[in-house]
Each structure stands twice: as C-alpha cells, then as structure tokens.
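Ticket opened by: R.M.
Priority: normal
Category: complex prediction / small molecule

The reporter submitted a protein together with adenosine-5'-diphosphate and asked that the result be attached to this ticket for the collaborator who will pick it up next week. Submitted input follows.
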Amino acid sequence: MGKNMFKRIILLCLLISMIFSLAACREKEETKYSSGKYEGVGNGLHGEIKVEVEVKDGIITNINVLEQGENAVLGKSAFEGISAAVIKKNSTDVDIVTGATYSSKGMIEAINNALKTGKVNLASKELTGEAEQKVEIKDAEYDVVVIGAGGAGLCAAIEAKTNGAENVVLVEKMPYAGGNTLLSYAELACAGNWLQKEKGIEDSNEKFAQEMWEGGGKLARKEMVDTVVNNALDGALWLRDTIGVKYQDYLVHEGGHSVPRAVEPVELGPGMVAPLVAKAEELNVQIFYNTKAEELVVNDAGRVVGVKVSSGEKTAVFTANNGVVLATGGFGANVEMREKYNIRWETLDESVQTTNSPAIVGDGIVMAEKIGAQLEGMEHIQLYPFNNPMTGVFYGIEAPSWSGEGIIYVNEDGKRFVNEVAMRDVRAEAILAQKGPVYAIYNQEVADRLQLEEKFANEYAQCLEGGVFYKADTLEEIAKYFNINAENLVKTMDDYNKYMTDGVDPEFGRTTSMVPMNGGPWFILKGVVSVHHTMGGVMIDTDAHVINTDGKIIEGLYAAGEVTGSVHGNNRVGTCAITDITVFGRIAGTNAALGK
Ligand code: ADP
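Result attached by the on-call engineer:
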C-alpha cells in the first residue's frame, strides 16, 4: 500500500467517524429537545400568563400555569380548555374558549413561547379516535330546572335545593358559570348594612327604594322595587354568611344613591360566582355546562313542564316536576335585538361595543315570548358611560367615579361637560353629545388613596401600550399627548377645584364626591360608551311568576335577573343589579321548589 493510499484511507475513516459522530450529536440533540419542561410567557387580559410545558418524546404531556392575573373563573376555564385541547391534539392550533378570548390567546402564546424556548419539535400525534368529550345529556326528570348559571340562576338553584327540591339541575350553555355577573364588580346595594352602621351612615329602605325608583324614571312597578329593596340586606347577609362571599371593608357610592350603600366582594365578580358554584356543587345541584336551553315545553293545560336542551349534536328534554326558572340574562350582546328595540340612542349597531359576555343574547326572552309571556320595557337599554376603547369593557382604573373621589371628564376642548358622578344614562348621553373623544382625569393623590397603581398595575401597563392611558407631571403634558386644548384644561381644573372647595358646582350641579385635585402627577384615560344592561325583559310579579300577555301567571315558569323587565324602569341605578338578581333569584328558586 503506497503512502498516499494509506493517507486517503485514514482521511476516509476520519470523515466517516465525523459523519457518525455528527449524526449521533444530532440524534442526541433531537432527543434532548423533544423531552423536558419548558417555560413560556404570553399576554392575557390582565397581564402576563406564565406556563410550564412538559414534553416527552415530542408529545405534550402536561401544562402548568405558573403565574397569571386573569379573572378567576374565566381564566380557569381558558387554561383548562386550552390545556386539554393542546394535549389532545398535540398542537397549539386549537380553538379559543368562547367568552375568554384574551385569556385563551395569552395561554396559547405562552405555550408556543415555551415550545420555542425548548426548540421542541412536536411529534404528529394520531388522534386517539375517542369521541369528543361532551356532556352526556339524555331525557331526564327533575324537580326544578334552572336555565342559566349566572348570578340569578345560581342563587335560584341553591334556594330550590335548600327549600326541599331533591333534584335540581342547572343548564348553562357556556363552558363556565357566571355570565355577566362574573364580569361585573358584583357590588350590591343594601340599606342599613354592616359597613354603613360601622361608619355611622344613616340610611333606610324607604330612601333606597325611592332613589332606585326615581333613578329608573319612575317607570318600574314600585312593588317590584320594594321587593328588591326590602330583601336586599337579607340577600347580602346570605351571600356573606351562608355562601361565603368575602366583602371589602369599604362602601361603594354609585351615581343615583344619596349615600354610600353598596358592598363589594374582595374578588369582585369571581368573588361572588366562585363561592356560589361551590355551594351549588356542595348541595349536589347538577350543572350541565355546554348545554343550551332551546325551548320551553308546555303541556295542554298551558303549564311549563320542562325544557328542551341541546349539547353539540344531541338534544334531550329535561322535565321539571315543580318548576322551571329562567335566568338567562339580558340581550346586550345581541346587536339585532338592540337595534330592534332601541328608541333612545342614535344607534346601537356593532359600532357600539358591549361590556357583556357574548352569551347574553336574549335567549330566555325569545323562549318565553314564544309561549306567550308578556315583555316589558324592552326599549330601555343602558349604556355604561366610560369604557376602555380597546375592549369596550369598563376600566378598573376609572374607579374614582364610583368611589366618592376626585375625577373630571373633559372633551377635546379641555372642558367639562357633565356631572361626572351623575347616573349612567345622564353621563352616557353627555358623552355621546360631544361627538368626539372624551377623557377622564384624576391625580396621584386620588390614585394613592384608592391604591390604584398597586391594584391595577397590569391594566395601566396595557392601556399605556394601547395608547388609551397616559400619566405625566403636568396638565399641559397630558393635554399634548391626546391633542387636547391645554389652556382650557388648566382653567377647567382651576374652576373644578374652586367648585369642590366651595362645595357648589354651578356648571354641572355635582353635589357628591366633592374632592379637589391640587397638583399632579396626572392620570388621563380615553373612554367610549358601551351597551351594559338591558332593563327590559319578561314580566314577573313579586313572587317571580312569569306573566302572560293576558296578565295571568304562566304556571310552572319563574324568572329572575336581567332576563326580567319589571324592576329597573328606564335606567338601572348602579349596584342595584346584583341586589335584584340575588333577591329575585332566591325568590324564584324557593317558589319553584315549593311549586308556589
Ligand atoms: P343574571 O345577572 O341575570 O344572573 P348573567 O348574565 O349573570 O345574568 O347570567 C346569565 C347566564 O345564562 C349566563 O351564564 C349565560 O351563559 C346563560 N345562558 C344564556 N342563554 C342560555 C341558554 N339558552 N341556555 C343555557 N344558558 C344560557
């Protein structure tokens, strides 16, 4: 063998061994990247969602949420729904959970980022061929069937069970409970409550009832208002002591109330809904999620005897021996219905956003009308005056307007245009009349007293990024950021401070929350009106019986909450909805159980 030939053989051997070792390396790398635990972050509605994704041989086996600040119930539903779908499909190409869009998107983003960090190649996983996991519904007999697991429905189901109904079922079309109640701050107005006593605030049911009725344009039936008001405190104590809702040690003072009168759950909407669900489960109330009520079943005598329900492709009839409770909420998210009934506002088409859950589309109203129920007040649709233009949903960081604090609203001219703590309809009307952008302004002292920067750090950050919030040392700077007339704004603030100090607001007649704001830094938010509450719905009496178009009771059918139209006249006073749904939910559930 010549010297050259020997060299060539050595070189060839080296090359072959290099190729093998490279291949081995790659194999090693692939093995390394297809198994392990990886962390990733995504943006939810209330800040970052951090997850840990566990992968074995290219298959996602587990997803843990490590950090998040989402709505307790909605977030949970999104995390569970997305995790289950991703694991089942071994892919992040999955549908978002209805009604929890931002939490779902944030969750998917976080999982994708975790997979990216780990350079994970996912194996394509054959679907197991198992049937989609769906609720098994079949024809069944119950004592009481409650439609809608929002605030009213949960209260009704619990009281039905407590008052002797053995088999109580809740039918909920979404994958989670709560409806609009979950998205609300769940503040409940009640006169003579424990906090008013502690703080020495004089109040009475008579005063409360008069203000709630006048706030609704004196159009509600007064006996309905009285029923809500007279049972309000009992409802709040029941939520606190029997259900376990934890309340703050301060009172909320919304426009339309002459005194601070509402209690607020520590965890807002989720702080009310989660303990209600827990109590319902503890009492063995069966909750069928992803199950939609389609029709009320009526017998030959005109009595409601059950509900036709559907889940996916399946349908079934749930027979109700004692009664059916309709608690499906209003129709704020149904643009067609809004347009059909609206007479007050220039338009309520899709250009106007809503604070509502997408589930709130008037199903119960339509079902009840079909079997002869009387509707009332359908034309009265409430706009929430000041919301985040990015989402259409109210700001947590606008809290000064309902906390008895300093705040002003201005237009692009830098001028005030309304009493900022007036009732919602007054403020909404004034905002729409500006025909242009409007802004809310408060100062550091106000933010500090309410601990807004601690409580809503994520919201401030997101709103800053979205260009709807700004904070600066001087009024001139915040005016410049939003192109507002700075000279006028400075004068507006001087005038406001003078009015608040004097205790008289000659321009807009503000008489409560008389708090001056001397000096920056200043906070400014941009706002839009959104559809919030539909005052109209099915007519009920004080026993929560549904009334037909002949003015007679429809036997076997009860209703409570926003689906009803008899309580709030043409304007629901802030913090009175939770009082209504709690009081009438309890009455409807009790009477349905007793067949009363
Ligand atoms: P309220 O404040 O009156 O209790 P919510 O908006 O809190 O009303 O709750 C209404 C609930 O009813 C929501 O959870 C919603 O998903 C549910 N719902 C609405 N329509 C139907 C339907 N057709 N079948 C089952 N559940 C429904």
